[in-house]
What does this fold into?
Amino acid sequence: MKRFTSVNDVNNLSALVQEAIQLKKNPYQHKHLGQNKVLGLIFMNPSLRTRLSTQRAAMNLGMNVIVMDINKDGWKLETREGVIMDGDAAEHVKDAVAVMGQYCDIIGVRAFPLLQNKEEDYAENVINQFIKYAGVPIISLESTTLHPLQSFADLLTITEYKKTAKPKVVLTWAPHPKALPQAVPNSFAEWMSAADVDFVITHPEGYELDKKYTWNAKIEYDQNKAFEGAEFIYAKNWSSYHHYGQILSKDRHWTVSAEKMKLTDNAYFMHCLPVRRNVVVNDEVIDSPNSIVIPLAGNRLWAAQTVLKKILEG
Amino acid sequence: MKRFTSVNDVNNLSALVQEAIQLKKNPYQHKHLGQNKVLGLIFMNPSLRTRLSTQRAAMNLGMNVIVMDINKDGWKLETREGVIMDGDAAEHVKDAVAVMGQYCDIIGVRAFPLLQNKEEDYAENVINQFIKYAGVPIISLESTTLHPLQSFADLLTITEYKKTAKPKVVLTWAPHPKALPQAVPNSFAEWMSAADVDFVITHPEGYELDKKYTWNAKIEYDQNKAFEGAEFIYAKNWSSYHHYGQILSKDRHWTVSAEKMKLTDNAYFMHCLPVRRNVVVNDEVIDSPNSIVIPLAGNRLWAAQTVLKKILEG
Amino acid sequence: MKRFTSVNDVNNLSALVQEAIQLKKNPYQHKHLGQNKVLGLIFMNPSLRTRLSTQRAAMNLGMNVIVMDINKDGWKLETREGVIMDGDAAEHVKDAVAVMGQYCDIIGVRAFPLLQNKEEDYAENVINQFIKYAGVPIISLESTTLHPLQSFADLLTITEYKKTAKPKVVLTWAPHPKALPQAVPNSFAEWMSAADVDFVITHPEGYELDKKYTWNAKIEYDQNKAFEGAEFIYAKNWSSYHHYGQILSKDRHWTVSAEKMKLTDNAYFMHCLPVRRNVVVNDEVIDSPNSIVIPLAGNRLWAAQTVLKKILEG
It folds into this structure.
């Protein structure tokens, strides 16, 4: 593997999931791979799961890790080309990235969207400059449009918990007080479309995602209908893609409740976390035995370790 | 050892101190214990000694360490139960903690009190949620009411420096411009009460600590009288427990001076640091040969390493 | 080597450069040297290259690393002697440093000048207190007046790229929107004066550096004339030393352009980074094949590793 920024960087998806399952059973058998190798983790935004799980994954492989919160620890970065840099930014991202590549064998980067200009965000300017200038393999720790380490953990978890060969998996929009990126739902759609599942997305009108990612999904505007027969409910808020970055609804009828879960086929409840309790999902659901949010978060480690292993192997 | 949050988590106090003394002589002999183990250090407040000494302790044992300043690097945490999370907090502490437990083998956490509500602070809500939800052993890096790693280093230092079998140890309040927690004096009292010392606390009236910790101490309101015959003077400011979080006095007569030290039996001077020079203690005392504040800080390493070793051993 | 804060800490400069060249060919052969050793990196200011390259250097030598942004992670430090500490600062730098020395085998520290008082800045108060109180070897990660790890990398790069035995090396001032320290040009002058090069400094009048560092340099106020026959152009902005900390000029005629580079002997372009593109240097120059800013940044790793190795060897 040369990089990991999308499901399209994966040659054989089911083989990748099987490799994660094997790794989980025997986490320390590949420590030679990481010897004398350094992973740099560059954060432009907050992170808990990604920060901790990716560090642990690298440590399990014998790598050293350097973590940097670039906006706090380093210099404000310019991202535009050809500009006269007499403003706030002290360094151009392409210089910073080329320098990082001198010290790190693999670089992970997190860069959230500003949700103000769809074209700019969907151009993936930051991660593309990392790919172009670092000279070493790049891993997305959540880009402006995708979060592949999360989606890999999602698919791994569904593979472990599924009760039927081709389970019904429902991605449901849920309310939230703030405007959130589309990266997690885009990415989930991208991965579910490549996997062997019956994939349904449900959301209020106006919350349609980019068809580039949802081409293989059934869209169902009636949440109750969508939940029928579901084996997995994956809840997530996102802001509107078409009315870019806007909050069109905070309707609490979309909150995942115990009553709604009764419509499913005794479905497992999933969420990528962090989650707003009693807004996105009620305590009664996330604290129920059908909630697998913590093992799902645990699988972030094995997803990251599998990706790092594949990259270390070349 | 299953956790380390109080002297009550210690089975045999004098054996623990002896183990630290042995470890100090041969610091790297237990590196196999930490192999493939990760310590997570979660800070909600500033830290110098605890941050550095606990990292070094883990490294000496062959562990990997992940440090996280949760409020800066992660998401703002909700700590109340059952609340509708539509405010600032993006994640509930119980979800964050359960996730951390997926990636770390031991977790240390620092959470200072707000000093506004005694009942809330003394309920130890944060560290108790770590104990309840992490699923792995928890080490206090200073909680709202106790600082056991400091107290262990205090006792280790007294054991090393004492000239008599049962030395007189005096904890003296000292002035300070800001309202400080009671964690260090509570914890010192808890540990001294469990140790074989003649323990005296001196402070202005109104600064009485929670009797839960000082049950075995003699309280002496006359600082001069308290200092007579002392072998160790341990200075520390704290805000009032009874008039909770208030500063009742900034009286510089309580500052530890060379003149006051003359009343003692050539006592050693101790303080946990950081210390306000010429407010808590005069330069002439802290810079004198009788000051053992730096070796005391050095013993933080051996206290932390002994605790980690005991937990790794199960 | 006992410390690394200036070229004066180096016994044999050309031998040091040769050692770096050898290390670069075989980076992992000295991992035994760092076993059970901990490097503490203390930052009072932002850092990208120094932060990452010094961590990597220590890892290549088998050391563990602890990084601390002291003003964010720890306590505000007092630096004056004998003061009554009842203000903002919670800890005296001499206590903090003595404590760090208890946990670290080598300490690196970065402390920028405030550029308000020349005597205070040039007294090097912070790094001198580290040297005095830490009890372990100190490495400058850029002090108020010098940046020796950068200068070592500069000299290493010139040694690798030079086409003549004694190349003409030109340090040119360039415009910048903010007042910057003199540490990089001071240090570059100090190292070039100790090396076997034909060294010229060019800058507008009023930007003369401290003669202590430039005693062996030719000063040329005409930038075009200075560039003639140059084999290396090293661009850098600094604020005035004589009109201390002031910006006397923002004249864009001093920006390094392709036209100016034509005056040279096909010179290599160098800058320590971060660099303001199209203010200090035009894109056409820094993106040209003659730009060696990225390999120069890469050499920061080998400079740091050579220094750490020499200190570990004693």
